[in-house]
Amino acid sequence: MNKRFITLLLAAGIAVIFVATALHAGTEVKDTFTMETDGYKKRKKAPPKFNFVEFSHKTHATDYKISCGECHHDKDGKALDIKMGDDVKGCGECHNKFKKDKKNKKDIMVHENAMHGNCISCHKEINIKAGDPKGRKGPAPASCGKCHTKIKK
Ligand code: HEC
Ligand code: HEC
Ligand code: HEC
Ligand code: HEC
Q1: In whole angstroms, what is the distance from residue 114 CA to residue 110 CA?
Q2: If you measure from the C-alpha of residue 76 to the centroid of ligand 1, how many angstroms do you get, rounded to a whole number?
């Protein structure tokens, strides 16, 4: 084999890898996500008391007509202009602290705070519009037990 042929083979190999990863990222969007992000160590230590939160991704984007950028943003927090099929980072890739720091409990880089900041603030707004001044009760789940349902024994 001459050098040129080897270079060609290598280039073809790299191209195949690129296509494979692009396809993988594009087809990975599930209609409903079971929110069980890795990193929560205490779940592994003790049997969980609550079911995982089921997040209806497709329903949120399609039926509720929420734009992708309301939830997905870049490394500076700027809304992303994306569409289905694009390669999108999971929230936990950046919000990758899984333990609250006692001195800075509201740190948005803590995964739990980012989730609650996104999900609950929107749901509260919806409930306020629907008539509950505190936004806790209404069509969108905004209190702990509505999302974190207890596992029945
Ligand atoms: C209401 C909030 C919300 C809306 C609207 C939304 N997403 Fe998501 N999306 C999420 C959450 C939460 C996840 C789960 C990420 C995780 O597990 O860290 C996710 C996951 C994804 C993933 C998979 C990422 C991975 O980790 O593999 C893709 C791709 C994606 N969304 C694309 C989109 C696109 C495109 C739109 C618009 C058509 C959209 N999303 C609308 C909140 C939303
Ligand atoms: C590429 C890294 C990155 C990803 C991926 C990411 N975030 Fe963030 N997010 C940030 C940064 C950085 C900030 C702080 C921005 C600032 O200081 O204004 C932030 C801020 C936030 C905030 C507070 C500001 C606001 O917009 O209300 C919430 C809530 C939030 N993220 C939720 C999410 C959710 C939910 C996801 C997944 C659907 C996600 N983030 C994915 C980096 C990221
Ligand atoms: C920008 C607004 C917005 C954000 C962000 C948002 N939601 Fe919602 N959510 C809605 C709306 C609108 C409804 C429907 C309320 C109704 O029935 O009128 C809803 C309903 C729900 C429901 C009950 C019905 C269903 O579709 O399953 C669950 C559970 C839910 N959301 C979970 C989540 C979670 C978890 C997140 C964060 C990852 C989230 N939502 C983020 C707007 C939002
Ligand atoms: C709109 C739905 C929603 C509501 C309301 C909500 N959460 Fe969450 N919470 C989530 C999601 C989604 C996650 C991220 C889970 C994951 O990705 O693993 C989370 C994560 C957590 C975690 C860290 C993960 C774990 O299992 O230990 C704790 C603790 C928590 N929530 C407690 C609460 C408490 C306390 C309340 C009430 C003040 C509350 N949540 C209200 C959706 C919700």
Answers
A1: 6
A2: 17
